[in-house]
Automatic annotation (TrEMBL):
SUPFAM superfamilies: Putative DNA-binding domain (SSF46955). InterPro entries: DNA-bd_dom_put_sf (IPR009061), HTH_17 (IPR041657), SinI_DNA-bd (IPR010093), Tn1545/Tn916_Xis (IPR038148). This is Helix-turn-helix domain-containing protein. GO terms for molecular function: DNA binding. It comes from the Bacteria. Residues 8-53 form the Helix-turn-helix domain.
Length: 71
């Protein structure tokens, strides 16, 4: 079994993408980035995060209307 996590917390996702934690939280809040909820913790699947990064390349992630939602 590999040591690579399938799911990342918002903090971990922010760290590995370079997107700020607050921006990452906004993307989740806006429904643009789906998460698994475990109590108060939000887990983002690594493959979902990679897909999100691909479809939103060149877009302004601070503008809700410019961000494409991933499923």
């Amino acid at each position: 079994m590999s040591n690579i996590k399938m799911g990342l917390t918002i903090e971990e996702a922010a760290e590995c993408t370079g997107i700020g934690r607050n921006t990452m939280r906004k993307l989740v809040e806006w429904g643009k980035l789906p998460v698994l909820k475990v109590g108060r913790k939000a887990i983002i699947r690594r493959d979902t995060l990679e897909r999100f990064m691909s479809v939103n390349q060149g877009r302004n992630l601070l503008n809700e209307n410019d961000v494409r939602k991933v499923a």
